[in-house]
Every structure is written in C-alpha cells, then in structure tokens.
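Repro:
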Amino acid sequence: MKTSAKKLSVFIISAILIVTSIMAPASISYAGVPITAGNGSLLTFAAWGDPQVSTYISSREKNVVSAANDLKNAQSKIDALVLAGDITENGSLSEYNSIYNDIVDTGVGSFITATGNHDIRIVDYSEAVNSFTSFTNKLNSAVGSTLFIDSLHYSYTVKGYKFIVLGSDETQLEEAVISNSQLNWLDSQLASSTNEGKPVFVIMHQVLKNTHGLPNTWGSSDESAGTVGAQSDKIQSILNKYKNVILITGHLHTGFGSYSYQKIDNIHSVNLPSIGVDNESGAYNENGLGYITDVYNNKVVFRARNFNQGIFVPEYDITINLDRVQTFSLSSESYTYNGKAKKPSVKLIDFNGSKISSSNYNVTYPSGRKNVGEYKIKIRFKNAYAGNPVIYKTFVIKPKGTSITSLTSSGKKITVKWKKQSTQTSGYQIEYSTSSKFKNAKVSTISKNSKTSKVISNLKSNKKYFVRVRTYKTVKVNGKSKKIYSSWSKAKAISVKK
C-alpha cells in the first residue's frame, strides 16, 4: 500500500475510534457441555485467534465473553490460553481493559499472547509494545503465572512444553517485520527445545505465504497478501530444520475446514478460526470457534470447539502424530553393482537414546534393487509406535568403476586410455587438473560405453597434470534422467613439455 493510502486508513480508523463508543456486553448464561481434558493428556490448552475486541463493534466482545464463560465452566484444568494475535481492534487501553475483564477469571493457568497487526498498527510502536506487555503481564500476574514479558517475542514453558511467540519488530498495516535478530533467536530457541522429541509450539499471528488457501483466502491475487511478510521464506526455512514443530497462526478469519491444517515439509501448521470476528471460507463458519488442544507422548490433538455454544465439533479435529525417531540409518547407503539384490538393514533410535525394536515397524523394500539406480525404503510404524509418521530413506547402487591403462603426452595433448566397463554403464567421465587435489579441475564426458580412449588438447606447457576417470549410468529418478557415478579411479600424473 502506498504511504498516502496507509495514512488515510490510519486516519479513518483513528476517527472511528475517537467518535464511537459502545459499552461492553453483559455476562452470558452458560448452556453448553463443559470442557474436559483428553484422557491421559499431559498438557491441555485452549487456542483462540482474533478476538479483535473493539470499543465500537460490540458483537465481537459478546463472542469473547461467551467463549470465556465456556472456559470458566471447564471441568478439567486448562493449563493455558493461547491468543494468536489481533487481541484488540486498535490497540487502545480501553480495548485491552475490556478483554482483560472478559477473560481474567476463566481459570486458565497462563495466558500466552501474540500481537497481531491490529494491536500495533495505528499507535506508536513503543506505546504498542508497552500496552501489550502490560496487558499480558497483568493477566498472568492475576492468575499466579510466572510468565512475564518485556518484548513482543518471547518463549515460555508450560509443564515441560515450550511455546515460542513471534512479534513484529516494526509497525506495519497488515504484515509483520521479523528482524534478523529475532530470526536468529527463533533458531536458537528451536535448537534447544526440539532435542527431546517433544512438540514445540510457535505462535505467530500472520501465516506463511502460499499456505492455508492464500492468497485466495485473503481475497487477493498477490502472493504476499495475508502473510507474515517479507521474512516468510526465512521463517519457514528455520522451522523446517526441526522435528515436531507446530505453528499456530490466526489472521485469516476462516472457519473449520480444509484451510485449518497444512503439513509443510516438517512443519505442522494450524490456522485458528476467529473467536471474535465473523468466520468465512470454511466448512463450519459459526462465531466463537477455537480449539482445546491435548498433548500426549505420541500425538497432539486439536479438538475443534464452538465456544459460543459450548460444544465440540469432532469432525473438524486435527490429530498430529509426533515423530519419535531421533535418528534413522541404513547399514549402507551406497553399493557397487555386482548383479545381486541389495537389502540394507535399518536402525532406528528414539529420543530416549534407545533402539526401536523391529517389532514396532515394517520395512518395505522396492522391487529389483540389483541394477544401478536409487531405491527408496519405506518404514511404517505399529504397536507402541503406531501413528508415528512414515519414514523414507534412499540408498544407491553405483556402477562398477574403471581404471586408467595408459597415459601419454604429445605436445600440448594427453591421450587417456582406460579399461572398458560396459555392464550397467552408459559412459565415462574424465577429470584433469594441475592440482593433485583436483582444484579447478576440468571435466570431459564420453557418452558411449564402448569408447575407451580420449585425447585432451589445449593444455599448458611445462605443467604436470593429474588425471582420473569414472563410469556413469543414466537412470530415471522420479521421472527425470539422472547420472549415477562410480567412484573415481586412482589418479595418474603426466608432464606436458610443450
């Protein structure tokens, strides 16, 4: 958006805020089915997106009050309430005070809050930070939580599970600005928190680009619309480095349905519906939607709930099976062709450092496994590890190598001869350099496996050249042609006089 347009938007919002004021709605009686934690759950938290409480749109706060009443009547302890941004419409103290009064007595153990664009976009950034941190600290102090923040990005551990909250480092109208400093902090937080195999929850208001139906769910053709902004790819790259990362976002105001969950490589991304604003673009678009989330040793279950009506909507639940395998190795990932089928054994280690018994998984080997090529092994889990994500591992069969039989020079030319290798071989590759370590080497490829000599020209006078050769076979991997090479032959040296 151009600067002038942005200033106009800020002016209009500010004007509405100044001239409009409606009292908060009265308390709502409870008629729902009380919340209970999942049987055997190790951690239970509620997750809400976009309360967006406003001094001039009373319907939103009515939804929040109703949802808060649902939490208050829970029959099990709710360890935390996660608010994934846009807590207020304009970041005003009156709006923060309203939602504080609405949710402070819900009985939750901690309030884990993230800022959204609405919380910071029309006020001075330092003022926005102060208002948000004061609101969060006041809530947590009131319920006896030790969570205390002085920044929009922070981390907090609840019952041994880490929550990492991201927040914009600058004021923006719709997107966020995540500085390199915050990105480095995120990386270090994940590195220290994912080594036990437990899920780590990353809370961020806006979503990653091209996820959860974007840009269509934002009603735009611009791929950046509705996203976290310019740092989206960097954030995704960091999150994807680690196992069992669950990204929780809001911002899109979509109800329960196909846009609620997306697996992005290693990342489990959950987009929350709105608890306050009207929902759309979902299969279930009632007001007051969110999740009760139960964490177990082997999975995380997001139970879809209509907090306004006090009912679960189980057809929209999200179950995320945790990856409990720390390392996975094959007895060998590389073989040389000898006409015999290859069957590497597998070794799986869990996050406790224990070897996983073969009784807990099945290994599926691809057919053949004799000829040169790449072969993908599939590991599917069962018994004590049932539900663990399927694992794939690739091993390669390389062609037999060859050796140099003759190396001669004449003028500025070298003639290289080698031993013929036609079985499971498409051709040869020659590498030559004035460095014994083959720095800045040049390569010549021979595409016929019947050819066994090559003249290399235009060499430098009075230089010693090092030469080696290997075979290759062209195969199909995922429908595309790929050369698979043998090991290099032993290098030979020769001097070029003139």
